[in-house]
Specification:
four-stranded antiparallel beta sheet, 38% helix, two-stranded antiparallel sheet, alpha+beta
């Protein structure tokens, strides 16, 4: 059976969380995430924040142990958590115009492992409750998965190719975000790095969308016109004068309204067919209470981004052309 056929048939196998896993989901995560709330507010710390900030610390441990049992995953994620030191901020500032600094910043990032770069003005809604960010700019770095490795999800104790690629991309994000932050500091400006997989002060998907790196998909992940949903993110905040990059629309949101690929492939049925109101915004939302137990047991999962038609290198150019044609005719 091909890997695509394997992914397409996943939901046909009944899935029930282990009672021990389900018992660790002590409270619903959907209200914490703001589902049904009509007022706009900042996001609350969630599953991948430190355990003293949410009620899922024990479930987080299960998820981490599950993924680390896969061959190669422990080493891949160890590299992701290997944060370099930030260097001191140089006393003398590079006084070049913002356009030049932005161009030099992007060139540095792209030459130090990032596959795409976006810049957004900092919005308080990009910062989790309980955190403070002083810098006025957020740089978002994108890192493309190796599709042939990603499509091997879900991983298990015999095949860790898929989850290891997740770890490898997070590791690239760690190296690249710290390298960029240190380069900015060498230019005389403040900068802080925000890589994954652990969450920190800054949400990354909203500024990624605002800076033109992609659109939000039905599966809750960014869809990039270059890489589909097979992309991981890291961020850098800074007070270096920069120029924001503009958001884009290429048809992913419209496509998701009718596509059922990730909805049908999701074993726990966590991906909703309709948008929901979340913290005052109508958007795609993945049911936390259904997703996380499976995620914890299935070595980080990744099925939804692997099955997404936009992630397939052979399908993405055709989708871009089709959606561009539809927009031109509307």
């Amino acid at each position: 059976m091909s890997q695509e056929a394997k992914l397409q048939g996943i939901k046909r196998r009944p899935y029930t969380p282990n009672p021990e896993t389900l018992a660790l989901l002590r409270v619903s995560g959907n209200p914490i995430n703001g589902v049904g709330e009509t007022a706009v507010r900042r996001a609350s710390p969630f599953f991948w924040h430190p355990a003293d900030q949410h009620p899922y610390g024990d479930l987080q441990i299960v998820a981490r142990q599950s993924s680390r049992r896969c061959p190669g995953a422990a080493e891949a994620f160890a590299a992701a958590y290997n944060h370099p030191e930030l260097c001191p901020v140089a006393e003398r500032k590079n006084g070049a115009p913002a356009e030049q600094l932005a161009s030099e910043m992007k060139a540095f990032a792209l030459s130090h492992e990032a596959d795409a770069v976006g810049v957004a003005a900092m919005d308080p809604l990009y910062v989790f409750e309980g955190y403070t960010v002083q810098e006025p700019w957020v740089i978002v770095l994108a890192f493309a998965h190796n599709y042939e490795r990603l499509r091997e999800v879900p991983s298990d104790e015999t095949n860790g190719i898929g989850v290891s690629d997740v770890g490898d991309q997070y590791a690239r994000g760690t190296r690249a975000s710290y390298a960029l932050a240190n380069w900015i500091r060498s230019q005389g400006y403040n900068a802080h790095a925000y890589p994954g997989p652990m969450a920190d002060a800054v949400l990354l998907v909203p500024p990624a969308i605002a800076s033109g790196l992609g659109e939000l998909g039905k599966h809750g992940s960014l869809i990039s016109p270059q890489f589909g949903a097979g992309v991981r993110l890291a961020g850098v905040t800074t007070d270096m004068p920069l120029i924001a990059t503009a958001p884009i629309r290429f048809g992913a949101d419209e496509f998701c309204k009718n596509c059922q690929a990730c909805t049908n492939a999701c074993p726990p049925g966590a991906i909703q067919e309709q948008k929901q109101t979340v913290r005052g915004v109508e958007r795609w939302y993945v049911d936390f209470d259904r997703c996380i137990p499976y995620f914890a047991e299935a070595a980080s999962c990744g099925i939804c981004i692997a099955i997404c038609p936009w992630t397939r290198p052979d399908a993405r150019p055709k989708l871009l052309a089709t959606m561009a044609q539809r927009r031109a005719q509307s």
